[in-house]
Predict the structure.
Amino acid sequence: MNTPRSRAAANSYHHGNLRQTLLRHAVELAREGGPDAVVLRDVQRLAGVSNSAAYRHYADREALLDAVGEQAMLRLADAMVARMDALPRRRAKDARALDRFRATGQSYIDFALAEPGLFRTAFAHKASGRQPEPDGPEPTGEEHHPFQILMRCIDDLVSTGLLSADRRDGLDEAAWAAVHGLATLFLDGPLRETDTARKQLITDRLLDGIAQGLR
């Protein structure tokens, strides 16, 4: 027998928004508990639909987890862009390029600390060889991926003369590894009990060191 909730849910999904509703619930589960909390049966229960209805949009848990990971990565990229957009604009081009480069690292770590569940989910293992769902949204655009944002900032360092072109190769990966490693130490490593002020001090030291190494 259909409950009022299930009837309402069925009506609300008549126009094909069930996929996004399932994804929204899955993202909230990931925010609370990381990738392990993304369970298809829990998502379909929250959405008030049957297993068969959910499986029409996400073939299995891995497909759902991949979609949540894309959303988490998108939110990380959004946070990086927002931080850069908030920087003062009345600066010399080279100073602004350095500010933007530094902002990518600071926002990356800030996001990890503010949204640990989504951060962990963004880097959860993706099923190898999986093709996108035929009726699903497009994956996060490459241009809006956190790594691509970082690469463009490093390109600006070269174009403004802060970084010589012959030292460009490998800096993208090195900078990413540095901030990702620190974020992981803060979340799941021996620095997880460090207080907020000291975490920021350590972050400043890391970003200072990277900036000084550019010259």
Residues 4-212 form a domain with the Tetracycline Repressor; domain 2 fold (CATH 1.10.357.10). The chain has one domain: 4-212.
